[in-house]
C-alpha cells in the first residue's frame, strides 16, 4: 500500500518517513539543529517547493525545556519557531498547519506533523482539504498523507532514534526513500536518520 509521507509519534519518540513515487532521489542530512530532506547529488533539477525542507527540529522552549517538532514540509519551521516563543505545542501545531494549509498540488496532499515535549507530552496533527486535526497521543500513532490521513494507532517498538528511523524506513508501506527518528532520553532528545544506503 502506498501511503506517501508519514509521521509516527508516541510519548517517548517517533519518526518521519519520506515515501515517494515522483521524487525518490532524496536523502536526509543533519544541519545545525535540524534534520533536512533534500535532493541527492544525482537528482534531476526541480522547482517543486515540496521536495526540500527541514523535517525535524529540536528547540528550547521557555516553559517546557526541549521540544521536538517533525513533519512533511515547510510547516515544521513555523511550528518550531512558535514553540521557541512559548506557544503551547497544541497551538503551535494548529496555527502553523492552518496557516500553511494542505499542499496545493495535484493530490491536495495533507500536511502532517507531530511534537513531543521533554516531559513526554506528544501531539499529532494533520490539515487536509476537509479537516484540521490536532490530538494528544498516549501510544504510537501514525498519520500519513494518503490512505491513512487520520491518526491511528500503530505497533512501533523503537527505543532509540536510530531504531526509530530504521523501523519507520522498514514499515511495509511502498516506496521508502529516507526516514528520520527521534527518541527522548535522560539527556534530552537524540535524533538519527536512515537513507537506505
UniProtKB/TrEMBL annotation:
Keywords: Hydrolase, Purine biosynthesis
SUPFAM superfamilies, per the entry: Archaeal IMP cyclohydrolase PurO (SSF75569)
Highest rank taxon of the organism: Archaea
Reactions catalysed according to its record: IMP + H2O = 5-formamido-1-(5-phospho-D-ribosyl)imidazole-4-carboxamide
Class in the EC hierarchy, top level: hydrolase
Molecular function as annotated in GO: IMP cyclohydrolase activity
Domain Inosine monophosphate cyclohydrolase-like intervals: 2-187
Annotated metabolic or biological route of this protein: Purine metabolism; IMP biosynthesis via de novo pathway; IMP from 5-formamido-1-(5-phospho-D-ribosyl)imidazole-4-carboxamide: step 1/1
GO biological process, one term: 'de novo' IMP biosynthetic process
Keyword Hydrolase assigned: yes
Record EC number: 3.5.4.10
Function: Catalyzes the cyclization of 5-formylamidoimidazole-4-carboxamide ribonucleotide to IMP.
Record family assignment: Belongs to the archaeal IMP cyclohydrolase family.
UniProt-recorded name of the protein: IMP cyclohydrolase
Species for this entry: Natronolimnobius baerhuensis
Source organism phylogeny: Archaea, Methanobacteriati, Methanobacteriota, Stenosarchaea group, Halobacteria
Amino acid at each position: 500500500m502506498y501511503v506517501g509521507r508519514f509521521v509516527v509519534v508516541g510519548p517517548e519518540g517517533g519518526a518521519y518517513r519520506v515515501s515517494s513515487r515522483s521524487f525518490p532521489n532524496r536523502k536526509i542530512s543533519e544541519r545545525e539543529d535540524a534534520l533536512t530532506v533534500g535532493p541527492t547529488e544525482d537528482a534531476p533539477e526541480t522547482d517543486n517547493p515540496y521536495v526540500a525542507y527541514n523535517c525535524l527540529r529540536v528547540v528550547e522552549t521557555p516553559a517546557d525545556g526541549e521540544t521536538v517538532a517533525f513533519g512533511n514540509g515547510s510547516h515544521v519551521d513555523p511550528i518550531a519557531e512558535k514553540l521557541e516563543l512559548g506557544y503551547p505545542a497544541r497551538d503551535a501545531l494548529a496555527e502553523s498547519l492552518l496557516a500553511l494549509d494542505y499542499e496545493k498540488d495535484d493530490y491536495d496532499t495533507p500536511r502532517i506533523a507531530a511534537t513531543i515535549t521533554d516531559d513526554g507530552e506528544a501531539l499529532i496533527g494533520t490539515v487536509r482539504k476537509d479537516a484540521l486535526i490536532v490530538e494528544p497521543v498516549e501510544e504510537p500513532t501514525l498519520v500519513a498523507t494518503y490512505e491513512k490521513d487520520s491518526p491511528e494507532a500503530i505497533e512501533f517498538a523503537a527505543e532509540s532514534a536510530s531504531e526509530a528511523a530504521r523501523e519507520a524506513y522498514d514499515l511495509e508501506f511502498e516506496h521508502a526513500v529516507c526516514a528520520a527518528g527521534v527518541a527522548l532520553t535522560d539527556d534530552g532528545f537524540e535524533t538519527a536518520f536512515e537513507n537506505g544506503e
